[in-house]
Write the structure tokens for this entry.
Amino acid sequence: MPELRVVVVGAGAIGGWLAARLGLCGVDVGLLARGASLQRVREQGLVLEEGGQTQQLRLRVSDDPQELGQHDLVVLAVKGQQLAGAAPQVAALLAPEGKVLTAMNGVPWWFFDDRPVQAVDPGGAVHRLLPPERVLGAVVHASCQAPQPGRIRHVMGQGWLIGDPTQPGSEAERAAVSLLCRAGFDAKAEPDIRAALWYKLWGNATTNPISALCGVTTDRILDDALVCRFTDACMHELAAIGARVGCPVAQTPADRHAITRRLGAFKTSMLQDREAGRSLELDALLAAPREIAQQVGVPTPMLDALHGLARLIQTRSTAPDPTPAAQS
């Protein structure tokens, strides 16, 4: 089988980490970047801090899809609020039989085969341009930071779950898993990628916005009995929605909190975004599950309150997004 032509869209924490690791293992990987990230990678290369080492590499980088050409695998690693602008570029980068791998948090535009999720894809433009059959879903269980444009710092985790939402076990899914394993990631095929996405959402749709609202690390959220009880209530609502759409959550909130506890004094990606003055990823994490809840008849008073409160600080995050922050 010929080697996949790969390009990563988004030079932030997760996108830059993936591009660097692929490049370091010999894959001819391209990077679609913009702004300060584009300039820094062009001039100095992409820098990766991982495992006590700092490595620098040159790779194909541009802000023009036509210059990079068409690819078999286009990895979309941007925040949800950047999706509308990135989608036409992704389509231009896709080879006729290519797939887009979505390394994004929250509910994706392709969650339903037959209709878009309006909260993340108003009017369904992305769903039409990049329908579910062109997609491979990914759930990233890792944390990285981008302290400077073009500089990526790996914090913890190597996990990637990859799944074809319309044809589980497809050749494209197997090829993507093989590629990531070659780069040293702990990559596995996931037969139900929607359920895996919902499970991650069940955890980070609460701690992310609460940490941004309060300006605290996750350990402090769990240490406060009242806040932890509110978090549990939100998670029960998310689990009820998931059960209605075929994405049941087998764990309890306490089970998930035990996992979060092991991270220690951890800054979520949304807290990092707020501190940097960037816009917050509220639509994919809160507006989308609330939209689905309304469709399936699940009341969400706690999620409604959390979303409303988080929207108040969203208006204060007015700086542009030159470098998306860590994903967690």
Strands lie at 6-9, 29-32, 46-50, 53-57, 60-62, 71-76, 94-102, 135-148, 151-163, 186-189. Residues 84 and 166 are 22 Å apart (CA to CA).
